[in-house]
């Protein structure tokens, strides 16, 4: 019986957008990408900056956000490996539509627009993955708009915590996020979010440890957010 060995891992392993590329094309792409590191709190790019690169996140987490004229911030999404972002500006050549900040120390690969467009021309199938990525972005924004209509602030806080917990099945889930950042993600004032967190803590759903939130009852948070049980 012939056994097929798995493909060796490389810097793009797990990145869905590039999963269908032949090994030679992947290696050319990796060679063209520039490794970058970011410290916690450092901006990767700022709204209205030139959209000159696609970012492949390899380690850490990044908040993508918009800033109001008053200085208030609204977090649109939190990216984690192996997420890819910055594709909107890369495709249309326009300025960045949002800013991105490292929530913790991060490492990433930056692919220039020129290298990406060359890849698209030589491997048109990659556009399917790009369209799926854009579709996912539109769905996230649609869900976020619906949350503002149908959920009260505690419900949005609960849903944000559930999303940050991801697919973890652990009995306790630690989320490295302070309450100011959580307020930006849930779309409320810090005081109101603190009240929601205090209410959840009194019910035994979570506890706070400095900049950390430790979720101890994810199922209850899911129900408070109006999400289906798993």
UniProtKB/TrEMBL annotation:
Sorted alphabetically, which SMART domains does this protein's record hold? cNMP, HTH_CRP
Domain HTH crp-type, by residue range, is 151-219
Q: State the UniProt keywords alphabetically.
A: DNA-binding, Transcription, Transcription regulation
Keyword set includes Transcription regulation? yes
Gene3D superfamilies xrefs? Jelly Rolls, Winged helix-like DNA-binding domain superfamily/Winged helix DNA-binding domain
Q: What Pfam family is a match, any one?
A: HTH_Crp_2
Domain Cyclic nucleotide-binding per the UniProt entry, residue ranges? 17-120
Recorded protein name is: Crp/Fnr family transcriptional regulator
The lineage is: Bacteria, Bacillati, Actinomycetota, Actinomycetes, Micromonosporales
């Amino acid at each position: 019986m012939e056994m097929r060995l798995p493909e060796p891992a490389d810097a793009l392993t797990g990145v869905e957008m590039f999963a269908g590329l032949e090994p030679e094309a992947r290696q050319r792409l990796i060679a063209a990408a520039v490794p970058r590191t970011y410290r916690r709190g450092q901006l990767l790019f700022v709204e209205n900056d030139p959209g000159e690169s696609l970012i492949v996140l390899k380690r850490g987490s990044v908040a993508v956000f918009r800033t109001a004229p008053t200085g208030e911030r609204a977090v649109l999404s939190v990216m984690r490996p192996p997420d890819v972002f910055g594709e909107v500006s890369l495709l249309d050549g326009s300025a960045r539509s949002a800013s991105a900040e490292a929530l913790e120390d991060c490492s990433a690969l930056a692919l220039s627009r020129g290298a990406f467009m060359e890849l698209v021309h030589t491997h048109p199938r990659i556009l399917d993955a790009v369209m799926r990525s854009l579709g996912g972005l539109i769905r996230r924004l649609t869900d976020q708009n619906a949350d503002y209509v149908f959920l009260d602030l505690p419900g949005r806080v609960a849903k944000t915590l559930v999303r940050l917990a991801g697919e973890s099945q652990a009995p306790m889930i630690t989320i490295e996020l302070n309450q100011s950042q959580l307020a930006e993600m849930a779309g409320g004032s810090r005081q109101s979010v603190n009240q929601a967190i205090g209410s959840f803590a009194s019910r035994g759903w979570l506890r706070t440890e400095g900049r950390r939130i430790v979720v101890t009852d994810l199922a209850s948070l899911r129900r408070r957010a109006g999400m289906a049980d798993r």
